[in-house]
Amino acid sequence: MHLQLWQSSLLPLALLNAPLLVSAEPIPVLQQHQKHDLMLSPRARPNAPDGYAPAPVPCPKDKPKLRVAGAVSDRETAWLAKRRKETVAPMTEFLTRANIPGFDAGAYIKKVADGVKDLPNIAIAVSGGGYRALLNGGGFVAAADSRTSGATDKGGIGGLLQSSTYLAGLSGGGWLVSSIYANNFTSVEELRNGKKGSSIWQFDSNIFVGPDLPGILDTPRYWASVAKQVASKKDAGFQTSITDYWGRALSYQLIDAPDGGPSYTFSSIALDEEFSNARTPFPILVADGRAPGTKIISLNSTVYEFNPFEMGSHDPTVFGFAPIEYLASNFSNGVIPSNGKCIRGFDSVSYIFGTSSSLFNAFLLQNISAVEGVPDFLLEAGTGLLEHFDDRDDDIAQYVPNPFLGWNSKTNPNANRIELDLVDGGLDLQNIPLHPLIQPFRNVDVIFAVDSSADTIYSWPNGTALRATYDRSQSAIANGTLFPPVPDEHTFINLGLNSRPTFFGCDSKNFTLKEGQSVPPLVVYIPNAPYSFNSNASTFDPTYADDRRNSIIRNGYEVATQGNGTVDSAWTTCVACAALSRSLERTGTPVPSACTECFTKYCWDGKLDAKASAEYEPKFKLSGVKGANSGAGSVKAAMGTMGGLVIGMIGMMFIL
Ligand SMILES: *[C@@H]1O[C@H](CO)[C@@H](O)[C@H](O)[C@H]1NC(C)=O
Ligand SMILES: *[C@@H]1O[C@H](CO)[C@@H](O)[C@H](O)[C@H]1NC(C)=O
Ligand SMILES: *[C@@H]1O[C@H](CO)[C@@H](O)[C@H](O)[C@H]1NC(C)=O
Ligand SMILES: *[C@@H]1O[C@H](CO)[C@@H](O)[C@H](O)[C@H]1NC(C)=O
Ligand SMILES: *[C@@H]1O[C@H](CO)[C@@H](O)[C@H](O)[C@H]1NC(C)=O
Ligand SMILES: *[C@@H]1O[C@H](CO)[C@@H](O)[C@H](O)[C@H]1NC(C)=O
Ligand SMILES: *[C@@H]1O[C@H](CO)[C@@H](O)[C@H](O)[C@H]1NC(C)=O
Ligand SMILES: *[C@@H]1O[C@H](CO)[C@@H](O)[C@H](O)[C@H]1NC(C)=O
Ligand SMILES: *[C@@H]1O[C@H](CO)[C@@H](O)[C@H](O)[C@H]1NC(C)=O
C-alpha cells in the first residue's frame, strides 16, 4: 500500500496563503459573467452569510448542540415521515410498470403504505472514481429518474430514484450528488444538456484551464476568482487548505451559479422546496477521519457522513453528530457556550464535496504547472508538494475547531485536538458510500450500489469496495452492524460477478443475529462494465469532450437498464423484485415466481472460485458495438510524467 505517501502530501499553509492577497482586487469582467448567469437560471438558496467566508450570526433560540448517535436525528425522523409517503405513488407506478406476473403491485403497496414500516425502503449509493464515477454514476441516476426521456419506456427503470429514500455519494460520486442537489435537484439529463442549450457539465475545458467562456473568463481570472474566495475565508480567521481551492475550482463545473456559487451550503439543501417537501431522496456524502499522528487510513478509520442536517459519525469511536449548518462554532462542551458565537457558512457545498474527494488535492497540484495562466502561488504550492511530500504532515481537509473536541474522549481519537482532519471517503477502500445506509435505525431494505472503482489493471471494478465494507462489518469498529458476505476479488472476476449486476445478502435467513442486531439490506451491486462504450477512463483524466462525456453517461444508463432489457428482458422485473424482497418477507407475502427466477439468476449463491484470475478485459455487452473507443489517456500514459511521485499514486489509481 502506498497510502502513506498520500497522507503527507499537503503543503505548508503559509506558502498557500501568503500570496493570496495579491489577487484580491475586484475583477469587473467577472461581474458581467454573473449577470449573464443570473438571467439564465434562477436558483435556490445561496444562503451563507458572507460568500465563501464563514461568519458569526445571532444564535437561534435553541442553541445548536451535538447529539449522541445511535438513531437518526429528530429532523431526519420528521423528514422521513413525509418522504416515505411521497414514495408511495412513484413506487406504485414503478412496480406496476415492472409487471411482475401474478403480483398486484398496486394492491400490495396500498396495503403496506399505511403503516409505512412495511413499505420498501430504497437507497442508491454512488461510488468514487473521479469524473468516471460522476459520469457512470450519472448514467445510473439518469436511468432511475422518471424525468429522463425514455426512462419509463419498456426496459427502463425510471422511477426508482423517485421511489428512493436515500441517495449517497462518495468522492466523484459525491460530485454527482452535490451537483444534482446544488442545482435544485436537477436531472442528470439537464445537467448534461443545460436548460437552454448550454450545459452545466462542461468537462471539455478542464479544471485547470477553467470554464470555457471566451472573452468572459480566462484562466488567470478564473484562478484569481477562486483565490479571492479562499482568501475571504482566511481573512475571516479560518484555516484554509488545498481542499478549499479544489472544491471552489470544481464548483465552476458542478454548480450553475456565478463564480461557482460561493454561498451555497450543504445545510441549505434542507431549505430547498423540493427537499423540504420530501420530494427528493435524502442526500449523504462520506469522508474518512484521520487519527492524529497517523497517515494510514484503514478499515479502522472513523467514517463520517454529511447530510443536510448533520455531520458526524455512527462509529463507536466518535458516536455523535453536529448540526452541519453551525460547523466551526464552539461545541467543546457539546453546546455553544452562552457567550459564544454561532458560526454559519463553513459547510460550503464545495468544501464538503472537496473533503469527500480530497485525494484529488495532490492531482490538482501535480497537473497545474502544465497550464498557462495559473497564478504563481499555486505553482509554488505544486513545487512545494514535490519537495516536501515525504516529510510533510499537512492536513487534507481541516475542520477547525474540531466539532467533537472533548467528545467521547475515551474512544474518539481526535477528542483532544482542536483540529479534525478528514480525507477522501474512499481511502479506507470502502469506495461505495454504504456505511450510512447499513445503519440499522435507517431501516434500509435494498441498496443499489453503483461501483465505478478502478480496481483492475484496465480500471474496472473487482468488488474490492464491497468487500471492504463486509470486512469492516466483521471487526469491532462496526459494533455489530452487519453487511452481506462478499467474496474475494478473484471470485468476482472468475464468476463474472463484476461484469453483470449481482445481488448480495438475498437470503436473510443466512444471517445469525445476536441480541440487538438486524438483517442488513439486500445489496444490488451494479459494476461499471462496457455495454456500448469503454467507460474505464482513468481516474485522474480531467478532460472529457462532450461526445465522450455523453457516451460514458449513456454506458452507465445501459448498465443500469441492461441495454433497455436487450441483455435480459426480465431486468426491470428483477430490479422491482430486489426492491420488494425484504418487504415481502416482513409481511409474510409469498415471493412471486418471477422474483424467484430473478433471485436464482442474480443472487450470489456463496460459491467461491479464488484461484488467481486471468487479466480482466471485458468485451462490449451490447451487440453491434465494435472496436475500442475509449480515447482516454491510458493508465500507462497517466503514469509517465511524474516520476517518483507517481509510483506512490499507482496504488490509489487502481482503487478510486
Ligand atoms: C426547483 O425545481 C422545482 C421542480 O422542478 C420547481 O418547481 C422550482 O421552481 C425550482 N426552483 C427554482 C428556484 O428554480
Ligand atoms: C435505451 O433507451 C434509451 C432511452 O430511450 C435510448 O436513448 C438508448 O439508445 C436505448 N439503448 C438501447 C441499447 O436500446
Ligand atoms: C483495528 O483495530 C483492532 C483493535 O480494535 C485491531 O485488532 C486491528 O488489527 C485493527 N485493524 C487494522 C486494519 O488496523
Ligand atoms: C453498540 O451497539 C449496541 C447494541 O446495538 C448499542 O446499544 C450501543 O449504543 C452501541 N454503542 C456504540 C458506542 O456504538
Ligand atoms: C469554547 O467553549 C468553552 C466552554 O464551553 C470554553 O471553555 C472555551 O474557551 C471556548 N473556546 C473558544 C476557542 O472560544
Ligand atoms: C482488485 O482491486 C484491488 C484494489 O483496487 C487491487 O489492489 C487488486 O490488485 C485487484 N485485483 C485484481 C485481480 O484485479
Ligand atoms: C451465508 O453465510 C455464511 C456465513 O456467514 C457465508 O460464509 C456465506 O457466504 C453466506 N452465503 C451467502 C449466499 O451469502
Ligand atoms: C478499457 O478497457 C478495455 C477493455 O477492457 C481495455 O482494452 C482498455 O485498454 C481499457 N482502457 C483503459 C484506459 O484502461
Ligand atoms: C495530470 O496528471 C496526470 C498524471 O500525472 C497526467 O496523466 C495528465 O495528463 C495530467 N493532466 C494535465 C492536464 O496536465
Automatic annotation (TrEMBL):
Residues 58-609 form the PLA2c domain. One of its GO terms (biological process) is glycerophospholipid catabolic process. The keyword Glycoprotein applies. PROSITE patterns: PLA2C. The keyword Lipid metabolism applies. Residues 1-24 form the signal peptide. One of its GO terms (molecular function) is phosphatidylcholine lysophospholipase activity. It catalyses: a 1-acyl-sn-glycero-3-phosphocholine + H2O = sn-glycerol 3-phosphocholine + a fatty acid + H(+). Its EC number is 3.1.1.5. InterPro entries: Acyl_Trfase/lysoPLipase, LysoPLipase_cat_dom. It is an enzyme of class 3 (hydrolase). One of its GO terms (cellular component) is cytosol. Keywords: Glycoprotein, Hydrolase, Lipid degradation, Lipid metabolism, Signal. Gene3D superfamilies: Cytosolic phospholipase A2 catalytic domain (3.40.1090.10). Transmembrane segments: none annotated. Belongs to the lysophospholipase family. This is Lysophospholipase.
